[in-house]
Amino acid sequence: MFFWALEGLIPLVRYTSLAAVRPPGQTLAPGRSWRRHTALNLFFTLTTVIVNFLFAALIIRTADYCTQHRFGLLYVFHLPVWLFTLLGLMILDLIGAWLVHWLHHQIKWLWQLHLIHHSDTWVDTTTANRHHPGESLFRAIFTLLAVAVAGAPVWLVFLYQSLSVLFSQFNHANISLPKWLDNGLAWLIVSPNMHKVHHHHRRPLTDSNYGNIFSCWDRLFGTFTFVKDTGNLHYGIDTHPAEEEHNRMGALLGMPFRSYRPPTDEKDAGHAAG
To answer: pTM, whole model, 2 decimals?
Structure first.
């Protein structure tokens, strides 16, 4: 709700029912299609919450086991609390967010699930939880894996999950921060402009900037991309441009089960993203 309100004060893009991207400074009232988009995204937020609740007990038990048996990377060396916390958050973010996100772009049947997230042409804070229940399931499994690998105690899991939600809403929010602030933040964390590049409708920008909390993973693994003017990005995915496909409940739920459509590379299409 906080970021939703903030979007009204400092929006990056002003939306209309007819298209997602408007010329800078143009003010248009949200239309019926935008309201449908918001309702759909809130529905998928609910399914994400349900899947996470189903895994909550298993994740907590795993964390308790790791703590009791000192199992996991965090127990290889004796670490001060601040370093234990930082390294724990980084491991959880790497496996539970960056890695599973990257895999969804590399494996076709996982990409079919992830399409629902990328098909959103009105990217805002509600987009953060717009995941097919099947994708939410895999993300929960990788969170469980991350907890086991790190050996994260319950308090660290709670801290990570809280930060993960906060940052996901933050970097998807349709807000415009001062360039110097956004660029500065992007050296440490995933800023709104950094992640908006990931929601451009064509490769190679779609296959970049996978991070959620820490931006170092994209820089380390060579998937970081900088775009100067994110206000001119075209959101969505080029394989599903029609609103009947990306803004209807039945179409979104059935999207993973339709035939694979290969996306177009930006360079092949002869366009520049900005």
So the answer is: 0.87
